[in-house]
Amino acid sequence: MSLLGLGEFHAFGAAGQRFLYLVPSAAVFALDDPAAALIDALDTHNLSRDDLLAAVAPRFPDAALDETLTELEQVRAVGPVAAPPAPMPTIIPMTPLTPFPLTTMVLNVTNQCNLSCAYCYEYSEDKIVDTTNGAQPKFMSDETARQSVDLLFRESGDNAVVHVSFFGGETLMNFPVLSRVVPYAREQAAARGKRVEFNLTTNATLLTSEMIGFLVDHDISVTVSIDGPREMQNRFRVFHDGRGTYDVLLPRVRELLRRHRSRPIGARVTLTSQVNDILGIYHHLTDEIGFQEVGFAPVTTSPGRDYALGESGFDQMVAEFKVLADEFLETAVAGRHHGFSNVTETLEEIHKGVSKAYPCGAGLGLMGVSTGGDVALCHRFAGSDEHKLGSVTDGIDRNAQVAFLERHHLANKTDCHTCWARPLCSGGCYHEAHTRYGTTTHPNLHYCDWIREWTDICLRIYGELAERNPGFLTRFDS
Amino acid sequence: MRHLTAINRKAARVEQAVTAPAGDVVALQQGSGPPQQPEGPHIPLGCSLVFSPGWEADRNGGTAGLCQPVERDLFDCHLGCFWPAHVPDQLNHAPDWTSKCAAAQKDWRNIDLIFP
Questions:
Q1: Residue A67: inside a domain, yes or no?
Q2: Of A382, A398, A414, at which residue does a domain stop?
Q3: Would you give the distance in Å from CA A94 to the centre of its chain?
Q4: CB–CB of B11 and A71 under 8 A?
Q5: Which ipTM score applies to this complex?
Q6: Environment class of residue A116 by beta-carbon count within 10 Å: exposed (0-12), middle (13-18) or buried (19+)?
């Protein structure tokens, strides 16, 4: 007799309710009590349909258990078990339709920086791109910037909105080119009946009142790289002469926050073994400085650097993420905004039911342009010959792109095939993998435990909000 | 669904997919199904309106699917249909293909397969 067993899912509870996060569909269903009992009955061993119904029936004499079981089968939470051993889940590799339209072009307008952050992936021991003098132009030219914009529009297909991101180096060191390419991109968008949006990442130490005026006038989103209160910011984020940057950037950031009101200004924090007081950093950046959003990411580094987060560092990080996430939950239940953007981003993906074949848009809808005009996977690889996908003059090398996408599909990451968090993680950042394992194809196995823990935390928050304040989640509908 | 509640948008789509009425699969159907096939009329064409030897019934024993090209291409397409089906080349290779079929209603079993 054929046996029924559990499908692939992650079960979680929130607000007294049982939920399933189904893999790979990424659907979230709430269970009634009989459905939960059927799942529990299959937890330890597989049963035939009749035995399963008989095992649960005494507890729910009046329930339509057969109907409940059918529903569980329909969503594949329960299914027939093949002869043991159970087969590996099948992931069918499918490269997306090509040419895949571009959504975002990241322009590395300079590879120069006025800071000397010890952990910088662009200049530290782990760097990928050859940034020695003369190997790359120090600044992107007007022509290359315009060609980057042209390429973005040319390859944007039917996308009605495209995004231009400015990155560095320190982006503002090439403010002249930036300030000229923004109106150019607006003109090009208007001529094509499209819309273009801009964002910029900066360390804020070079920000002037005129620049702020430009950012406001042109409605440019801004992310500030900042690590927290003075002693934490000054631990790694220093000028070339070793001086701390906190006192230089603080008045500039305050002016930016005061004048730029049309878009949320985000802070982006790099966590290291020495800078890891997440709650303290968050409340300093929001309550004391006034950022609307704060996102955290552990430093990208090969293991063994003294600033790398070790095993205990990750444990502490997730523990503090959890405390801050709980704060997010209570604020959201009350219908108010909380700026812990790591939660917001994950909730949005859960709400939409994102199930990724690739960890991010790099090499797909997003590409990065180096100062010299080479197109690569993303800004972190821009300028690396090994990760080149074309140039702004010759266009995108679609063969190289397809080869990249075939090699990096989730189907090729065997380690991920039994992980329930793969719809959201899909193996993680290519650059992190390259730094850690020497290849972009490797899943980031050093992150697995905390990715699963973090995803579980966010699923519980999602479940709590679905029960206690479902209206909050409608903001993710668009 | 009465026992599972769809919470996120993907769950709503899964629910929609599994609870959608099954419906007949009808040839040239315009109607219900995935989003790319909006509801529309089913227009009977070709062999469902005329006598077509061998194809009085569809593969389910009904008449709903009669105009599937794969089911028509043996004989009827060769005679009267616009569908570019693979039928024997009666000019060069198989000029006698229908010679034993004087009256289609009686003799249609005499039409055989042709192997090039």
A1: yes
A2: A398
A3: 22
A4: no
A5: 0.86
A6: middle
Burial code (b: 16+ CB inside 10 Å, e: under 16) for A195-222 equals ebbbbbbbbbbbbeeebbeebbeeebbb
Is A222 in the same domain as A368? yes
Same-domain pairing of A133 and A57? no
Q: Which helix (H) or strand (E) holds A367?
A: strand A366-369
| pTM to 2 decimal places | 0.81
Contact A463 B10 (CB under 8 A): no
Q: How many residues does chain B have?
A: 116
Please report the pLDDT score of residue B83 as a whole number: 46
Q: How far away is chain A from the Cα of B63, in angstroms, using its nearest Cα? A: 30
The string of pLDDT tens digits covering residues A326-364 is 999 999 999 999 999 999 999 999 999 999 999 999 999
Chain A and chain B share a number of CB contacts under 8 A equal to 71
Q: Residue A389's domain spans which residues? A: 104-398
A449 located within any domain: no
Give the residue with greater pLDDT, A17 vs B67: A17
Residue in this structure with the two tokens 């109106």, named with its chain if needed: A183
> Do A312 and A382 reside in the same domain of the chain?
yes
**Domains: count for chain A:** 2
- 3-state secondary structure (DSSP) of residue A61: coil
Task: Classify residue A154: in a domain, yes or no.
Answer: yes
